[in-house]
Amino acid sequence: MPDLLLELFSEEIPARMQAQAADALKKLVTDALVERGLLYEGAKAFVTPRRLALAVHGLPGRQADQKEEKKGPRVGAPEQAVAGFLKAAGLSSLDQATIQSDPKKGDFYVAVVEKPGRATTEVVAEIVPDIIRRFPWPKSMRWGTGTLRWVRPLHSIVATFGAEGDEPEVVHFSVDGIAASNVTRGHRFLAPEPFTVKRLDDWMAKLEAAKVVADRDRRKEIILNDAKDLALAAGLDLVEDEGLLDEVCGLVEWPVVLMGSFEARFLDIPDEVIRATIRANQKCFVLKDPKSGRLANRFILISNLVASDGGKAIVAGNERVIRARLSDAKFFWDTDRLNGLASRMPKFQSITFHEKLGSQAERIERIVRLAKELAPKVGAPVALAEEAALVAKADLLTEVVGEFPELQGLMGRYYAQGENLPPEVAAACEEHYKPQGPNDRVPTAPVSVAVALADKIDTLVGFWAIDEKPTGSKDPYALRRAALGVIRIVLENEKRLRLMDVFNFAAGGKGGLSAFDSVRFSDAKYSPADAHQVMDDVIQAHREAGIDYKTAKALFDLLAFFADRLKVYLRDRGARHDLVDAVFALEGQDDLLLVVRRVEALAAFLATEDGRNLLAGYRRAVNILRIEEKKDGRAFAGPTVAALLKEPAEEHLAAAIDDVKARVSKAVAAEDFAAAMTALSDLRQPVDAFFDAVTVNDADPALRENRLKLLDEIRAATRGIADFDRIEG
After folding, report:
1. What angle do CA 421, 443, 457 make, to 5 degrees?
2. Rg (Cα) of the chain, in Å, rounded?
3. Is residue 262 within 8 Å of residue 323, measured between CB atoms?
4. Does the reported pTM lie above 0.70?
5. Which phi and psi (to 5°) does residue 157 adopt?
6. What pairs with residue 530 in β-bridges?
7. How far apart are CA 464 and CA 452, in angstroms?
8. 529-583, pLDDT tens digit by residue?
9. Are 506 and 486 in contact (CB under 8 A)?
10. Are 212 and 193 in contact (CB under 8 A)?
11. If both were cysteines, with which of 348, 491, 544, 697 could 361 make a disulfide (CB 3.0 to 4.6 Å apart)?
12. What are the two backbone dihedrals, phi and then psi, of residue 302, each rounded to the nearest 5 degrees?
């Protein structure tokens, strides 16, 4: 079957846009072909700095013929309706239509319209110009007097179609005066003359001869392997960098790997600064000395030329630029160390963190206050946590971080070590930013944990207080990442924190109070239906701790946000989101570690036969209760009246509920959730026996009400563990 080759040849395409453009070209063309009935066997996109190409294999030579039945008006319809039908169907008279009968609607006209398939070249000539004109470049330009917008000026288009062994034909179309042909060009400098191509294999072979490696993955492989070989020959190791490899691969069509060097005196600069300087300014790889473990004064550069002098001039030019850049970096490094981190702190007073949240200096004060509060909870010395929180952000005002923002934190560690600050403080300067993503490590040192939590929680509480929350896919302040960071730090370090207490303190409250502590569903004052009263009382508790009503509501919303983030975190690890909902639905669930332990215990329980059967019995009880409550317009809340328990099965169930509630309460208080689940499993048999032997809706109203209250007691017993209403399946 024939193949299609398409190449769009232009000025240099920015490296960052190339991979996305190749994917877009493949999707747009293949989707358009399939939409028109042209199925294919395979497709592959190619991209180099000067060309975007696509090969589609196994296309048919033409579209299949199509037959379409068009239903017309009924026989005897007005002439105007008949005329409209003939025009729409392309018929000259009713003699060309057939008559079909419908038992209900009677006889009506039907036209069979035959639509012959078009040649694939015609279809391609129709769809490709439109795709080129509306191609989704992140940025595009016009040039000359034309109207076409492309990432860079488009010079030529190759479009051929044909089967292997045949001479392919050129697909004729033009875009803004650029006519499709079978002519392309090779390397800009090494082989600039035009040449003709046929199909994919011919195109790739001739490009290779013209010093162009068309396959992006192969260019990457050449660069990586040649760089490793050159490093090995020098007794060094290549510091691999996937992001840089992707970038330099998009800068060359014929990669030539060369090695340069710089003065050893620059090795006094931290390795990360050297690497950032060389990477950012010259797109070069650095090398490591396997003996010392530090960087060597060598680098790898990727040229797009086979130079007559073996690359000496190219290497010398890169060395000259890198020497200048490293001189700047050394000046920054030396200047930063002249003055201590503490000397930079007053400058934060004139830097705004957020117009509604004050200056950076005010933010640092809040972080220090919160870190001191958190330190005892995470096992960190208060004095060290305070000192670390005070200087953790100081490196943001250093020259090196100003030049290379990606080194923030790390440079703080270097400067703190240079000032002989305690090791815990130096570590916290770097680690308080972590984790910065799902694959980043979390801090484990107590001082680092305290400052990292303070930094993230202050951000979250602050933005929630001013109602600047993530919306949809927008999260300009990376608040989702901050919340996930808190979750990972707490869980992976197995730290016990009452989040509402911490939020309260971070919002300016007095501290030492978890608003939940004074309000519990288990108190006689409340029933499960009293959610609004509970909320009001909890907010009042916040008010007494120095938190206003609006902020208190924002903190509850923030806790709900943490519940959603925790669901995402646990779901990625195989946990059920509905179980997280079921546990968070209970009052007072702001200790993430305990929530996770409850979820794990609940999941293990529901995986057993007892757990599944109890859940089924629970649902039966709750469904009956809801129906009767809706019918009567009132709630049936326990406890039951012992004198009205007439049947042995209901007496046994009532006794079992009392026993289980006591055991569950004791086990939960001891944080022994496995024991709580074991106690809960003892309800399975009494519940089953109750439904087998007892009629809930008894004719006696008193017995009926008491039995409905007994069903509510089943719900109350399970609420010691979770809200079973939220469990799915």
Report:
1. 95
2. 36
3. yes
4. yes
5. -130, 130
6. none
7. 18
8. 444 554 566 556 655 656 677 777 888 889 889 988 988 888 888 778 888 888 8
9. no
10. no
11. 348
12. -115, 115
